[in-house]
Amino acid sequence: xxxxxxxxxxxxxxxxxxxxxxxxxxxxxxxxxxxxxxxxxxxxxxxxxxxxxxxxxxxxxxxxxxxxxxxxxxxxxxxxxxxxxxxxxxxxxxxxxxxxxxxxxxxxxxxxxxxxxxxxxxxxxxxxxxxxxxxxxxxxxxxxxxxxxxxxxxxxxxxxxxxxxxxxxxxxxxxxxxxxxxxxxxxxxxxxxxxxxxxxxxx
Length: 203
Known about the structure:
Aminopeptidase; 7 helices; about 35% helix; globular
């Protein structure tokens, strides 16, 4: 049975964006749970500050099945501001957590074009959706004049590392100092160099 083609668009071009999409996008950043709390808390902190022009949505007629979020020119998928942190944690705790979150965000300015996150619903996995999203990310990067796409993946996430290796990403450095400063896992910086004809494998 032939599957329905996947449509990928910038979320900013959608006439309506369901709250469920925002909730899914904000459920990422689990490694920063000590700053941002659980998934419900992350939604309250980040949902109103989503930069939809930094999010690609993959969908079929039955709904959204995946997304990719990216960062370039010092702007990523989230710009929440201090206010939701203060509402959630109080003035002192909120200011501290907001500062730690911004340190994490600013650290990624080092990368020209940064793949912030890529996720596919479990029921739609192993259908090439992630590869299609990755190709759309490459096109976004090239369209913005970037020749490299970089990302960070947890060192222990062997499945993700293998996926990105199949798609031309190579390890650049292991960032152990982050886990020494904050209670987050050790991550590896991966890089893919692009050309105008860059394509990802179809399988």
